[in-house]
Design goal:
The complex is a heterotrimer of chains A (294), B (329) and C (260). Chain A has 294 residues and is an all-alpha fold. Helices cover 75% and strands 3% of the residues of chain A. Chain A contains 11 helices and 2 strands, in the order H-H-H-H-E-E-H-H-H-H-H-H-H. In chain A, helix 1 packs parallel to helix 5 and helix 2 packs across helix 9. The longest helix of chain A has 32 residues. Chain A is globular and about 60 Å long. By secondary structure, chain B is an all-alpha fold. A two-stranded antiparallel sheet of chain B has the order 1-4. The longest helix of chain B has 27 residues. Chain C has 260 residues and is α/β, with parallel strands linked by helices. Chain C has 2 domains: 154 residues, 3-Layer(aba) Sandwich (Rossmann fold), CATH 3.40.50.300; 80 residues, no CATH class. Chain C is 40% helix and 24% strand. Chain C contains 10 helices and 10 strands. In chain C, strands 6-7-8-3-9-10 form a 6-stranded mixed β-sheet, with helices on both faces. A 4-stranded antiparallel β-sheet of chain C has the order 2-1-4-5, covered by helices on one side. In chain C, a hairpin with a 2-residue loop joins strand 1 and strand 2. Chain C is globular, with a radius of gyration of 19 Å. Classes of the chains: A mainly alpha (294), B mainly alpha (329), C alpha/beta (260). The interface between B and C is large, with 45 and 61 residues.
C-alpha cells in the first residue's frame, strides 16, 4: 500500500517537475514576446539526446557534459530567435503566425535530431545513482530527488531573476507593453532573446535530468510541449510560477490516475479536466486579468 | 453622378478548378495517382473549413482534426454498428459534428487567440485518446473497416469514387466561395479585424463565431467522410498531430483568408512528400524549412501571386502616390 | 424643444472604486448637433462607450427614440438607427474601402448563414443595392474613386471620411462621432467641418465628442461639458464659452499641465 503510494507520489512529482519547468519556460517566452513556442519540448529532447552523446558516446566527465548540453540548448534557442522569431516580427507577423513558425522550427529540430541520432530509443546515462534510497515509507533515488530539487531551484532562480534584477524588471515591462518599454530605453529584442535562451537552458537541463527515467527518443519533444501547454493553461500562462504549479499538478494527477484508476484514460481525463478549468476560469486556476489583454 | 463600383469577383476561377478536377481521372493512369488526387480534395475540404474559421473569422481552432476524425468514425460506426445506409450515415455524421461543435464552442469561444488554440488542442487530444483507448467503442488501434460504396448493387470503382469526392469538394468550394464573397464573409472578416467595430455596425459577434465554428466542424466532418469512403478504414491516425501540421501548412502555403488558398495549398502539401522522398533523410528538415520560407517570404501564400486584387494592389503601390494627397488638400 | 432622440438619465459608470461617469443626464433633440467636451479624463470617452453599448452602465438609463436601451448589446444599437465612428480609426484592414462601407449596411441582410444560402435572387439583388448605396456614400464623402483601395493606402483624413461614410450607410437617426478631428491637419479639419455642416443642414442629429474646442463651437447647436465624471454645463456654444465653471475646468487642466 504505502510502497505504491510512495512510488506514485515520487513519479508524479518527478514528471510534474519536468512539465512544470516546460510550463515555466513557455510562460517566460509568452511573457516577453506574446508567442507560444511550439518548439519548447524540442529543447527538452535536445537536452536528453545531447546527454546521450556527451555522456555515453563521447564519455565526457559529467560537469563538462552538463555545460555542453546547456550550450547546445542555448544555441538552438538563438537559432529560433534569429531564424524564426525576429524575421517574423520584423515582417509584422501576427502572434499566431509566429506560433506556426515555431512549429516549423520544431519540425526542423526534429529533422536534424533524426539525422544525428536516428529514430531508436536511447539509454540516457544518469548523472546520479538510481539506487533506491529510503525515507521512512518513501522510496526514491538520487536522480528523482535531484530533479525535484532542480525544479525548486529554477523556481527560486526565476523569481530572483524577475523580481530582484534590473533585467527582470525590463522583462516584465516588455511583457506589459513592448512599445512603452522601448520608450523607456528597453530593447525588447534583447529581452526576448534572453527569455528564449533562459527557457531553453531550463528545458535542456530538464531533458538532461529526466532522460534516464523516460528514455531518450527524438520524438519525445511534441508530447512534452503539449504537457507544458497544459501545465501553463491549468496554472495560468500569465505567470511562470502558476504554470510551474500547473505542471506539478498534472504530473501528480497523471501518476495517481494511472495508479488507482486505469492508466488507459489518465491522459484524456486530464485534458477533460483542463477544458473544465478553462471554462470556469478562462485564464487558469492561478491566472489573473493580465491575460485578457492578449 | 455616382462613379462605377469596382468589378466584383466572378465564379470563373471556381468553374475552372472544378473542370480541371473533372478532367483529372482521364489524365491520370495509375491508381496511386488517383489516390493522391482524392487526398488533395480531402485535405482541401478540411482546410477550407479551417480557412473560414481562422483565415476569415480569425478564430484559431487546433481541434479541426478531431472533427475530421469524428466525421470519419461517425460515418463508419453508423454503418457498421447501427446498420444505416451510406446517405443516412452521412447526414447523421454531419449532425453529430454540428452538435459536438456547439457543445465545444459555447464555452470555448469566449477564449481568445492562444487560449482558444490550446483549449481546442486539448479537445483534439481528448478525441484522439478516446479513439485510441476506448477499444470496445472505437476498435482502438486497429480501427473499424467498412464495405465499399455501392450503386445499384455494384461496388463503385475508383473513378466513380473520385467523382463522389470531387462532388463533395465542389459543394464545399462553392459554399466557401459564396460565403466569403457575401455579406457573411464581410461580417466574418470584420470580426477577425476588430470585434468592437464589428459589433458597433450591428454584427452579432458571438452568434457569428459559433455559426462559423459549427460550419467548419461540419466541413471537417465531410472531409472525414470522404476519407472513410476512399480508405474503407478509420483508425486513430486521423487526428494525429501530423494531420494538424498538414492543415496548418496548407493554409499558410496557400494563403490564409484567400479564396483558393486551401486548394493551392493542398496540391502542394499532398504532392510535396512525393517530391521530398528524393531528399531521403533530409525530408523532415526540408518540410519544416519549406513552411518557414513561406511564412517569411510569402506570408499571404501562393494566392497572393495569383489573385488579381493583390496584383492590382502591388501595381498601384508602385505608382507614385498621387490621388491620396490631392484629395486631402 | 422638439422631439427627443437621445436621453441620458443619471448615467453612471464605476471602474472599481473610480467613478468615471457620475450621474450625468442630458438630452439631444431631433436634428440637433450636440457637442460633448471636457478636459482630459473628464469621462467623455466612457460616456460615449455607455451610449454605444461598448460598456454597460453601472446605474442610470439610456433612452433612444423613446425606447429604453440601457441593456441592449452593442450590435443591437446600429440597426435601431444609432451609428458611430471611432477616435482611433477602426476600419477593417482585410476589406477594401468599399467593402468597409458595405458593412455599414450589414443589418439590412437577413441574419444567418442558411438564410444567406437560401436567399437566392432577393439576396443577390440586395447585394447589388448594397454596393450601389455604399458607392453613393463614398461619393458623398468624395472618395468614390478610391472604392477599391486598401485601408493601408489611405491617409488618416481619408480614413475618417470612410468611417463616416460607413456610419451613414444605414441612414441613421443619430450619428455619434468620437473626436473626428483628432490627428487631422488644418486642411483635413476644414474639409471635415464642411462635411458635418452639410449633414447638419440635412437635419441629421449628431453627438460629437471633441477635444478641439474651436471646431466644436462652430459645429454644434448645443454643448455638454463634463469635468471629472460630472456634467458642469449644458448650453448653447456662446454661453458655454463664457461659463466660469467651464473656463476654470480647462484652466485647471492647463495649470496642472504647467506644473508637470
Amino acid at each position: 500500500m504505502m510502497m505504491k503510494l510512495s512510488y506514485l507520489l515520487l513519479a508524479g512529482l518527478t514528471n510534474g517537475s519536468v512539465y512544470g519547468l516546460i510550463g515555466l519556460s513557455l510562460s517566460i517566452i509568452y511573457g516577453s514576446s506574446r508567442v507560444i513556442n511550439f518548439a519548447q519540448g524540442e529543447f527538452v529532447m535536445l537536452g536528453a539526446m545531447t546527454a546521450v552523446m556527451f555522456l555515453a558516446t563521447l564519455a565526457l566527465p559529467w560537469p563538462v557534459a552538463l555545460v555542453l548540453v546547456a550550450v547546445v540548448a542555448i544555441v538552438a534557442a538563438l537559432g529560433l530567435d534569429h531564424g524564426v522569431y525576429r524575421p517574423l516580427v520584423r515582417r509584422k507577423a501576427e502572434p499566431l503566425t509566429i506560433m506556426i513558425g515555431t512549429l516549423a522550427a520544431a519540425i526542423i529540430i526534429y529533422g536534424i535530431a533524426l539525422l544525428v541520432w536516428g529514430p531508436e530509443q536511447k539509454f540516457v546515462p544518469p548523472i546520479l545513482s538510481l539506487a533506491p534510497i529510503r525515507f521512512g515509507f518513501l522510496m526514491t533515488n538520487a536522480q528523482q530527488l535531484a530533479i525535484i530539487a532542480m525544479f525548486f531551484g529554477f523556481l527560486v532562480a526565476t523569481w530572483f531573476l524577475l523580481y530582484r534584477t534590473r533585467f527582470g524588471l525590463s522583462i516584465r515591462a516588455t511583457g506589459v507593453n513592448p512599445r512603452v518599454a522601448l520608450l523607456m530605453g528597453i530593447r525588447s529584442e534583447r529581452i526576448v532573446q534572453f527569455s528564449f535562451m533562459y527557457s531553453a537552458f531550463v528545458s535542456g537541463m530538464a531533458g538532461l535530468m529526466i532522460g534516464p527515467l523516460l528514455g531518450g527518443q527524438i520524438g519525445m519533444g511534441l508530447l512534452l510541449t503539449v504537457k507544458g501547454f497544459m501545465a501553463a493553461i491549468l496554472g495560468g500562462l500569465g505567470s511562470p510560477f502558476a504554470a510551474a504549479a500547473g505542471g506539478l499538478a498534472i504530473g501528480l494527477m497523471e501518476a495517481f490516475m494511472a495508479g488507482y484508476g486505469t492508466s488507459l484514460y489518465a491522459e484524456p481525463a486530464i485534458f477533460v479536466l483542463i477544458l473544465l478549468v478553462l471554462i470556469v476560469r478562462p485564464y487558469g486556476l492561478l491566472g489573473d486579468y493580465e491575460a485578457e489583454r492578449r | 453622378m455616382t462613379a462605377n463600383s469596382p468589378p466584383r469577383p466572378t465564379l470563373a476561377p471556381v468553374i475552372f478548378i472544378l473542370v480541371l478536377g473533372a478532367l483529372l481521372p482521364f489524365l491520370l493512369q495509375s491508381g496511386f495517382h488517383m489516390r493522391l488526387a482524392m487526398l488533395i480534395w480531402i485535405y482541401a475540404i478540411l482546410s477550407m473549413g479551417f480557412n473560414l474559421l481562422y483565415g476569415y473569422t480569425g478564430q484559431i481552432s487546433l481541434g479541426q482534426p478531431a472533427f475530421y476524425a469524428i466525421g470519419a468514425y461517425g460515418f463508419a460506426m453508423l454503418q457498421v454498428k447501427l446498420g444505416w445506409g451510406p446517405v443516412p450515415s452521412f447526414i447523421g455524421t454531419l449532425v453529430v459534428c454540428a452538435v459536438v461543435a456547439v457543445l465545444i464552442g459555447l464555452p470555448l469561444l469566449r477564449l481568445r487567440t492562444h487560449y482558444l488554440a490550446m483549449a481546442t488542442l486539448a479537445f483534439m487530444l481528448i478525441q484522439h485518446g478516446i479513439a485510441n483507448r476506448w477499444i470496445g467503442f472505437t476498435g482502438g488501434q486497429s480501427g473499424i473497416a467498412i464495405v465499399p460504396l455501392q450503386w445499384g448493387g455494384e461496388t463503385i470503382g475508383r473513378t466513380g469514387l473520385y467523382f463522389v469526392v470531387l462532388g463533395m469538394a465542389a459543394a464545399v468550394l462553392l459554399l466557401h466561395d459564396f460565403l466569403v464573397r457575401s455579406h457573411v464573409g464581410r461580417a466574418m472578416q470584420a470580426i477577425r479585424d476588430d470585434e468592437t467595430a464589428a459589433a458597433a455596425l450591428g454584427v452579432h459577434v458571438v452568434k457569428y463565431k459559433l455559426r462559423i465554428l459549427v460550419l467548419s466542424a461540419v466541413i471537417a466532418g465531410v472531409a472525414g467522410v470522404c476519407f472513410t469512403l476512399t480508405s474503407l478504414r478509420v483508425d486513430p491516425s486521423l487526428s494525429e498531430f501530423h494531420v494538424l501540421v498538414s492543415m496548418l501548412t496548407i493554409v499558410v502555403v496557400g494563403g490564409l483568408g484567400t479564396r483558393f488558398g486551401p486548394i493551392l495549398g493542398s496540391v502542394v502539401v499532398v504532392l510535396l512528400p512525393q517530391v521530398l522522398t528524393g531528399f531521403g533523410e533530409l525530408e523532415t528538415i526540408v518540410y519544416g524549412a519549406f513552411i518557414l520560407v513561406f511564412l517569411l517570404f510569402l506570408p499571404h501564400g501562393l494566392s497572393s501571386l495569383i489573385e488579381r486584387r493583390d496584383f492590382l494592389a502591388a501595381f498601384k503601390a508602385r505608382k507614385p502616390a498621387g490621388t491620396g494627397k490631392e484629395a486631402a488638400e | 424643444m422638439t422631439e427627443t432622440i437621445l436621453k441620458v438619465e443619471g448615467a453612471t459608470r464605476r471602474f472599481g472604486g473610480l467613478v468615471a461617469v457620475n450621474a450625468v443626464s442630458f438630452e439631444i433633440g431631433k436634428g440637433m448637433a450636440c457637442g460633448l467636451i471636457g478636459p482630459n479624463g473628464a469621462g467623455k470617452s466612457t460616456m460615449f462607450d455607455l451610449i454605444t453599448g461598448v460598456r454597460p452602465v453601472s446605474a442610470g438609463d439610456i433612452w433612444f427614440k423613446g425606447q429604453r436601451m440601457t441593456n441592449a448589446p452593442a450590435h443591437a444599437r446600429s440597426p435601431m438607427g444609432m451609428a458611430r465612428t471611432f477616435q482611433i480609426v477602426r476600419l477593417f484592414r482585410g476589406l477594401s474601402v468599399l467593402e468597409n462601407v458595405m458593412l455599414g449596411l450589414h443589418p439590412r441582410f437577413a441574419d444567418g448563414i442558411i438564410r444567406a444560402l437560401l436567399g437566392g435572387k432577393a439576396r443577390a439583388a440586395q447585394e447589388t443595392a448594397t454596393r450601389a448605396r455604399a458607392m453613393e456614400m463614398l461619393d458623398f464623402v468624395g472618395l468614390a474613386d478610391r472604392a477599391d483601395a486598401r485601408i493601408e493606402e489611405m491617409t488618416l483624413g481619408q480614413l475618417r471620411l470612410v468611417d463616416i461614410a460607413r456610419a451613414l450607410a444605414l441612414g441613421p437617426d443619430l450619428l455619434m462621432l468620437d473626436e473626428p478631428a483628432a490627428g487631422l491637419n488644418d486642411a483635413e479639419t476644414d474639409n471635415l467641418g464642411v462635411m458635418l455642416e452639410r449633414l447638419r443642414k440635412q437635419g441629421l442629429s449628431m453627438l460629437l465628442v471633441e477635444h478641439d474646442v474651436d471646431f466644436i463651437m462652430n459645429a454644434c447647436d448645443r454643448i455638454v461639458v463634463m469635468d471629472r465624471g460630472t456634467k458642469i454645463a449644458d448650453d448653447v456654444p456662446a454661453r458655454v464659452r463664457t461659463d466660469p465653471k467651464v473656463i476654470s475646468a480647462y484652466i485647471g487642466q492647463r495649470a496642472a499641465h504647467a506644473a508637470h
